[in-house]
């Protein structure tokens, strides 16, 4: 069964390694059909990055963010590299997309809002992705709903104006200024370790989850999070599972933010890199070799861990 699933993954048209080069060659061609898709399927109404962060700051609402991984997960029922397909999780993601909960913002990719601020190669990528996935994704959205920006955690790589990137990082860090943070993350993610991303918070606690397939531990993670005071800010970095956990925490009266890859973007921003690179001691799924992560000797990081549900 596992061999079958592995072969199925390798030969899958949308993400399998066998079709990696053909997909890369096809993107410029697919992008040419973007105006047609945009004309037939109206793109969702999405707030800017700044407006989304300010809404979180001023309203104390939670946010669940959907990127291309979640879109593939829902539309094509894919086993992602970091999250196996689970029907219960997929159903929950679908319900979140159309939900009208007062205290929950739903984020969609900035590429679905505008391509003007994105570097040319990323414009081609997003045009192609929208052509490939949006006709199938459209039915899962509420055309009347106000969506927010999923890129509040993707603030650097691919954007033209780096001064604006700096402003956005400063703005999102203000969300936890002098606040207590509970961070629920994959065991190899280590958000904020070795940098000052959360240095302006008053306290940081960590609950560790598996690096892959975190949904298997969602009940334990939720139970542990519910032990924390409701005046803390809960940050969740667990890929697809984060959306479900944010939703559950919001229903329990917490402000929870699907924080995603913010730490890696911050690391790349601080280094001023032009391409994504491996960050030693941290899980970097988008870079070759980035999933092999060494242990770190960081007393502060280890002192912040209050619980582990890593499946080990």
Q: Please, could you describe this protein's structure?
A:
The protein is α/β, with parallel strands linked by helices and 312 residues long. It has one domain. Helix content is 40%, strand content 13%. It contains 12 helices and 9 strands. It has a 5-stranded parallel beta sheet with strand order 8-7-5-6-9. A 4-stranded parallel beta sheet has the order 1-4-3-2. Strand 3, helix 7 (120-137) and strand 4 form a beta-alpha-beta unit. Helix 2 crosses helix 7 (120-137), helix 5 packs parallel to helix 7 and helix 9 (218-225) packs across helix 10. It starts with a helix and ends with a strand.
Low-confidence residue ranges: none
* Overall spatial form: globular
Structural class: alpha/beta
Mean pLDDT: 92
Report Rg.
19 Å
Helix and strand arrangement:
Elements: H1 2-10, H2 20-31, H3 34-40, E1 45-46, H4 49-59, E2 62-65, H5 68-75, H6 87-98, E3 104-108, H7 120-137, E4 146-149, H8 162-173, E5 180-186, E6 203-209, H9 218-225, E7 233-237, H10 240-251, E8 255-258, H11 262-271, H12 299-303, E9 305-308
Parallel strand pairs: 1-4, 2-3, 3-4, 5-6, 5-7, 6-9, 7-8
